[in-house]
């Protein structure tokens, strides 16, 4: 795991490249390097976290043995040892995967080599013969890669902080991206918070030369593959193609499918457990992390290291479940409990850690568990992506149920019911329900009735089909154009790039979440939190062979009798008793709502000050202040909506 940076411009200097990559030292504190060709107009820089081949032979930027290519590479190619045996006649200098990548490209060509790589990576590759720069991102978007134009130069790097070190960085804030951020709590690919700076989409390659890197192309759009005056963006791997292929090659035998999945997961974990440094796994006690830990332990002759974070508040704490599973598996378990003070201390680090506004509040405990794990190891395996691939989120079950209950109503009637519900403030509904509660059966006793009724009213007003219900559920601020001043919310994956032909809404939601929420929220959250502590994380579920196998399974295999992630459960029950795992899905959350009313109130009030919001000129203060007052009064829980505003405000303050 490392950090890369560089740029294309006439007469590049090592000094600028060094300043850029120095900003990424947290991603790789073990070594750094600069390579510059002034005549060609290219500078590459690398910051190294040594995982494979700790010797100087793994130093980057690295040149191929034939002298044609120079690479700066972030990530891991897990099957490099196997590829090394396939590459004949190579005089190897060391045993790093970087050297194998270069040899594979020189021998087989770039496209063929990429198809053989199993791993996570962001690559900057300079082709001396063709005078071309290739920027390449792994299939699932595990490793970040930003690119764009600053001061008439083409720049790129693992994080925005590297690009901001380029001289005279003055790119304005992208208000349209800010509107997307308020809807999703993250900024979707290909956008970034800055104008003319983009995220390279997963499974894509961008190619260009000095001739077409000097300025932003007119009418440039980074939302789809294109070829614009020598600036070429294309997909070398597509999840859409995988989904289509899977639908045409369905595995019909459930037991056979589950056996294939277990075999593939074990192979993936075996590959990802190869390192020249200490290695372990995160263990929350949930299905996904427990399965990874169980298979990892089954592959090991000694007790593996597992790590769990705990909370003193029982409703947020899963540490006791993780401990029980660890004892059963026989892992060397490490757990530590965090308090509000530790979490609050992390908040001031978030604007610099995440580089652009990011509002998934689980970023706080994620950073803390990575920080603790780093004290003991350098690589940790995680259970991320199990939900998106195997139908694990509650919304996958809710959307169809909601639509079945309301679809029979004509749309005018749904709108009428919505208006009737909205006619009474939520606290009035709570008041009315209070009188009914005593005569209702216990199973109908509910909390926050008014808030839930208003959410139902929201869905009634917007629901035209199941897709629109899903869009409502994943939208934090439903009307970001009314909150962000002078903006127009751009087209994104959900309304631009329709999923492949899928019959079930559940399959569509899994596809959308894999392309969006997983790539731009979950993976970003973990990458920045882990890299902020110089810890590498690996994700066995994102081995592309596991992804391809998951899409060959029909929905009935993944979601059985009201239970999601059915294949993962059936495999896990062979290693861990079912009684240790069966409980409601809890998630990785913190008591944010209470903190905003207490410990964080003064901090939040200063950032949400109406005069301040008005002077800064990004937001309409009125709806924000209204939600803040409703939250403080306890009438509503607006923790996530407010957190998105607060994280932008904190980021803005840090970047003035």
First-to-last CA distance = 30 Å
- Identify the strand order in the major beta sheet: 4-5-6-7-11-13-12
- Structural class designation: alpha+beta
State the assembly state of the protein chains: single chain
Strand content: 5-15%
User: In percent, how helical is the residue content?
Assistant: 40-55%
Give the tally of β-strands.
Answer: 18
Which geometry do the CA atoms define? globular
Mean pLDDT: 91
Low-confidence region ranges: none
Radius of gyration, whole Å: 25 Å
* Major sheet characteristics: 7 strands, antiparallel
How would the blueprint of this fold be written?
Layout: E1 2-8, H1 14-22, E2 31-37, E3 42-48, E4 62-63, E5 69-77, H2 80-86, H3 97-108, H4 110-116, E6 119-127, E7 132-137, E8 146-150, E9 153-157, H5 160-163, H6 175-184, E10 197-199, E11 204-208, E12 226-228, E13 231-235, H7 239-248, H8 254-272, E14 279-282, H9 287-299, E15 305-311, H10 319-329, E16 332-338, H11 340-347, H12 350-354, H13 363-374, E17 379-381, H14 386-390, H15 395-406, H16 411-423, H17 426-437, H18 449-462, H19 466-473, H20 480-483, H21 493-496, H22 505-531, E18 536-538, H23 544-550, H24 555-558, H25 566-572, H26 592-597, H27 601-607, H28 610-616, H29 621-633, H30 639-654
Helix pairs in contact: 2-3, 3-4, 8-9, 8-23, 8-25, 9-25, 11-13, 13-22, 15-19, 15-22, 16-18, 17-18, 29-30
């Amino acid at each position: 795991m490392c950090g890369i940076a560089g740029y294309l411009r006439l007469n590049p200097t090592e000094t600028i490249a060094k300043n850029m990559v120095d900003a990424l030292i947290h991603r790789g504190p073990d070594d750094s390097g600069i390579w510059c060709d002034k005549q060609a107009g290219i500078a590459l820089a690398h910051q190294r976290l040594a995982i494979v081949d700790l010797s100087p032979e793994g130093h980057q930027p690295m040149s191929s043995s034939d002298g044609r290519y120079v690479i700066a590479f972030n990530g891991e190619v897990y099957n490099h040892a196997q590829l090394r045996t396939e590459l004949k006649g190579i005089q190897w200098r060391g045993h790093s995967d970087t050297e194998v990548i270069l040899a594979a490209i020189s021998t087989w060509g770039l496209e063929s080599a990429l198809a053989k790589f199993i791993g996570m990576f962001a690559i900057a590759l300079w082709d001396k013969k063709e005078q071309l720069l290739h920027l390449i991102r792994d299939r699932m978007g595990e490793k970040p890669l930003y690119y764009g134009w600053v001061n008439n130069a083409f720049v790129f790097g693992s994080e925005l902080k590297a690009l901001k070190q380029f001289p005279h960085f003055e790119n304005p804030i992208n208000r349209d991206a800010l509107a997307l951020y308020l809807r999703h709590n993250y900024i979707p690919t290909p956008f970034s918070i800055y104008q003319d700076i983009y995220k390279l989409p997963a499974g894509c390659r961008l190619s260009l030369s000095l001739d077409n890197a000097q300025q932003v192309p007119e009418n440039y759009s980074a939302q789809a593959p294109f070829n614009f005056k020598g600036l070429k963006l294309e997909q070398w791997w597509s999840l859409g193609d995988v989904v289509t292929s899977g639908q045409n090659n369905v595995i019909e035998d459930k037991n056979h499918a589950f056996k294939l999945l277990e075999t593939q997961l074990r192979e993936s974990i075996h590959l990802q457990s190869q390192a020249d440094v200490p290695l372990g796994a995160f263990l929350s006690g949930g299905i996904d992390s427990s399965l990874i830990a169980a298979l990892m332990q089954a592959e090991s002759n000694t007790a593996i290291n597992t790590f769990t974070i705990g909370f003193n508040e029982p409703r947020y704490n899963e540490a006791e479940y993780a401990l029980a599973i660890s004892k059963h598996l026989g892992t060397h378990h490490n757990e530590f409990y965090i308090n509000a003070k530790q979490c609050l201390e992390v908040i001031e680090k978030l604007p610099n850690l995440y580089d652009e506004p990011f509002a998934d509040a689980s970023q706080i405990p994620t950073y803390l568990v990575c920080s603790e794990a780093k004290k003991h190891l350098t690589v940790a395996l995680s259970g991320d992506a199990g939900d998106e691939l195997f139908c694990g989120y509650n919304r996958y079950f809710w959307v169809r149920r909601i639509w079945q209950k309301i679809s029979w109503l004509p749309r005018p009637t749904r709108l009428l019911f919505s208006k009737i519900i909205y006619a009474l403030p939520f606290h009035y509904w709570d008041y009315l329900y209070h009188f009914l509660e005593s005569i209702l059966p216990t199973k109908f006793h509910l909390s926050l009735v008014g808030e839930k009724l208003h959410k139902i009213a929201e869905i009634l007003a917007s629901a035209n089909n199941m897709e629109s219900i899903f869009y409502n559920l994943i939208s934090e601020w439903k009307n970001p154009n009314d909150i962000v001043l002078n903006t127009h919310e751009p087209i994104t994956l959900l309304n631009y790039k329709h999923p492949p032909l899928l019959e079930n809404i559940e399959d569509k939601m899994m596809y959308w979440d894999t392309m969006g929420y997983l790539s731009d929220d979950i993976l970003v959250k973990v990458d920045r939190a882990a890299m902020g502590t110089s810890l590498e994380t690996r994700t066995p579920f994102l081995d592309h062979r596991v992804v391809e196998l998951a899409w060959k399974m029909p929905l009935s295999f993944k979601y059985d009798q009201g239970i999601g992630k059915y294949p993962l459960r059936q495999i896990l029950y062979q290693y861990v008793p079912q009684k240790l795992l069966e409980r409601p899905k809890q998630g990785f959350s913190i008591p944010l709502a209470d903190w905003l009313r207490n410990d964080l109130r003064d901090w939040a009030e200063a950032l949400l000050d109406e005069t301040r919001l008005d002077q800064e000129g990004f937001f309409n203060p009125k709806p924000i202040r209204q939600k803040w007052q409703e939250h403080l009064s306890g009438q509503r829980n607006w923790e996530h909506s407010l957190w998105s505003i607060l994280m932008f405000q904190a980021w803005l303050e840090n970047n003035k």
